[in-house]
Amino acid sequence: xxxxxxxxxxxxxxxxxxxxxxxxxxxxxxxxxxxxxxxxxxxxxxxxxxxxxxxxxxxxxxxxxxxxxxxxxxxxxxxxxxxxxxxxxxxxxxxxxxxxxxxxxxxxxxxxxxxxxxxxxxxxxxxxxxxxxxxxxxxxxxxxxxxxxxxxxxxxxxxxxxxxxxxxxxxxxxxxxxxxxxxxxxxxxxxxxxxxxxxxxxxxxxxxxxxxxxxxxxxxxxxxxxxxxxxxxxxxxxxxx
Length: 241
Ligand SMILES: Nc1ncnc2c1ncn2[C@@H]1O[C@H](COP(=O)(O)OP(=O)(O)O)[C@@H](O)[C@H]1O
Ligand SMILES: [Mg+2]
Fold this sequence. Notes:
There is one protein chain. It is built from 10 helices and 10 strands. The chain is α/β, with parallel strands linked by helices and 241 residues long. It has 2 domains: 155 residues, P-loop containing nucleotide triphosphate hydrolases (Rossmann fold), CATH 3.40.50; 64 residues, no CATH class. The strands form 2 sheets. It has a 6-stranded mixed beta sheet, sandwiched between helices. A 4-stranded antiparallel beta sheet has the order 2-1-4-5, with helices on one face. A hairpin with a 2-residue loop joins β9 and β10. α3 packs parallel to α6. The protein binds adenosine-5'-diphosphate and magnesium ion (MG). Magnesium ion binds next to α1.
């Protein structure tokens, strides 16, 4: 059976720098899969290629059977592949509500759409009660963890079929990270497929059914999250022994 996302021999270069060197992976519908690796391994570049934000040198990216490498970013988003960008990229001078509404703006074509968006807005706010409490606050005044929740909420309002996340744990206190990962699991249990990129190898492999380990632009190991968590090579390289 074919996966929702199928990436084959993906290569991306920045001039002479071969950031991604022939990567293959799959994301089946309903799963959480993760791509883990150290800083500079090529994780963000891989995600940027999926969203059409960098142009691959070669390879194929098929999403629900459709080749994405020829499509523009907005067409990819409209097909349901939505990214929560690294560094969160929320609009700090807008309110929480305005940021959430921006996530849905491409869906907003009429009265029926607005009703669906309003109901999705309710769900996102129920998922993240902290956003409910701060709905009229300027996004720039939120804590780092709240900003990450807002970025995820905004992506959910675009109605993804596959949610891509680039290091949601970055820069957050451990307790906040736990909270956000718990929410990701909840979202997945409600049926959303997730592809998560992380430097926090332990956490990512704990939440994911299947993981891929990226080193210098190549996948060097892949297996179930549980198997990789106990793999001596993974333990030695990424978990301090
Ligand atoms: N815009 C860019 N221009 C040139 N080199 C880049 C650019 N972005 C990333 N790189 C390089 O590509 C490699 C992979 O980077 P990146 O995909 O950001 O890795 P990761 O997300 O795993 O930390 C690194 O060597 C990085 O320095
Ligand atoms: Mg990165």
